[in-house]
Design goal:
15% strand, five-stranded mixed beta sheet, binds pyridoxal-5'-phosphate, Aspartate Aminotransferase, domain 2, 401 residues, alpha/beta, Aspartate Aminotransferase, domain 1
């Protein structure tokens, strides 16, 4: 049996094992944590080999370690990729990947809507190194094509995007990039490989904040990038220089979380859809953003490229900007089960009033460009009962207006 023929549920349990060399697998079922910072050689020939072999996991722990390797094997298989590199955080994965792939004089096409950390890298850091960046509205695939230049080296996409769950047509972007030898990179954090496998649509590199769904328990920070062996090796060589390596203990925790990824995401999908349907019919709510709702403008695209809409939705409150802003704040404060915190993908349902987060650092125009209405609340479903969450929201709505 080939690992690639297995469903995510089975892969999550067994996909960290070495299928080509079964004799190398540890007989201990739980993965061992290798805290060693350094590994000894038996002789100078072995030392030379350790120092020079790419991605050696028993040399010096900034280069990798056996716990991390086991976790990477599983992550690559979940994303249908030949190789994966686990890094210090989602931002560690994004920054290391961009710095490895780009040099001064290159041009990047990315989206107007990105995770805020990514948006800052694209707006400030890359231009400071002489990389040109063009941002486009991701909802129109032709926008990516129109932005291309002779020096375009990379297209960066994120779908669904934060916080309005806008989608990018993966097959369309992959197609126009492939025809011109341009690399494609997709941030798959919101969907997770359970809902969407960008490589199946021709995307080259898939990246995620493992802090969210992959870890799933709000107890670790990590990031991952998956793709062809040669490109991953290049990103790895930059990670050594940048020091964006992951700790062995984090790799262990992530593996432990990954075992239940498909079940967790299945329930979060169902809860988010139930909450979206409930909130869509409430008079206090003007708009619900959730790609698996028939009312979402890109519902057809969601059906084509996602298994389900994911665990995150966002709502805009009714009653105009000023009223809706205050209702949103009162709603978030009135919730008892859902906690008010950044992040998503953990077992706890989390809500954020996005404007409260950004109004100190962004102008109203910048917030509007990022899709952040003052009345918007993002909801990331956890694993509580959907009925309890709905009741909590019903009570909070009554108290907020
Ligand atoms: C959280 C997040 C990141 C950053 O990941 P960290 O692990 O916090 O560094 C990047 N992209 C998306 C879509 C995210 O949600």
């Amino acid at each position: 049996m080939q690992p690639t023929s297995l469903s995510p549920e089975s892969l999550a349990i067994h996909g960290d094992l070495d299928w080509e060399h079964p004799e190398r697998n540890d007989t201990a079922l739980a993965p061992a944590i290798y805290p060693a910072s350094t590994y000894s050689a038996r002789d100078s020939a072995e030392f030379a080999e350790m120092a020079n072999a790419p991605r050696h996991v028993r040399y010096y722990a900034r280069y990798g370690n056996p716990t991390q390797e086991r976790c990477e094997r599983l992550l690559a298989r979940l994303e249908n990729a030949p190789a994966a590199l686990l890094l210090s955080s989602g931002m560690g994965a994004i920054s290391t990947t961009l710095l490895a792939l780009l040099k001064a004089g290159d041009h990047v096409v990315a989206q107007t809507a990105h995770y805020m950390g990514t948006a800052k890298l694209l707006a400030d850091l890359l231009p400071s190194f002489g990389v040109e960046v063009t941002l486009v509205d991701q909802r129109v695939p032709e926008n990516f094509e129109r932005a291309l230049k002779p020096n375009t080296r990379l297209i960066v996409a994120e779908t669904p995007s934060n916080p309005t769950l806008a989608l990018t047509d993966l097959a369309a972007v992959a197609g126009l990039a492939r025809a011109r030898n341009i690399l494609t990179l997709v941030d798959n954090t919101f969907a997770s490989p359970v809902n969407q496998k960008p490589r199946d649509f021709g995307i080259d590199l898939v990246l995620a904040s493992a802090t969210k769904y992959l870890g799933g328990h709000s107890d670790l920070i990590a990031g991952v990038v998956c793709g062809e062996e040669k490109i991953i090796e290049n990103i790895w060589s930059r990670s050594i220089a940048l020091g964006t390596n992951v700790s062995p203990f984090t790799a262990f925790l992530l593996l432990r979380g990954l075992r239940t990824l498909p079940m967790r995401v299945a329930q979060q999908n169902a809860t988010a859809l139930a909450l979206a349907r409930f909130l869509e019919h409430r008079p206090e709510i003007a708009r619900v953003h959730y790609p698996e709702l028939e009312s979402h403008p890109q519902y057809a695209l969601c059906q084509r490229q996602m298994q389900h809409g994911g665990g995150v939705l966002s709502v805009e409150f009714a009653g105009g900007v000023e009223n809706g802003y205050h209702t949103a704040k009162r709603f978030v404060a009135a919730l008892k089960l859902a906690r008010h915190a950044v992040s998503l993908g953990g077992v706890e349902t989390l809500v954020v009033h996005a404007a409260s987060m950004w109004e100190a650092s962004l102008t109203p125009e910048q917030m509007q460009a990022a899709g952040i209405s003052p009345t918007l609340v993002r909801i990331a479903a956890g694993l509580e009962s959907a009925a309890d969450l709905r009741a909590d929201m019903e009570t909070a709505l009554g108290e907020a207006v």
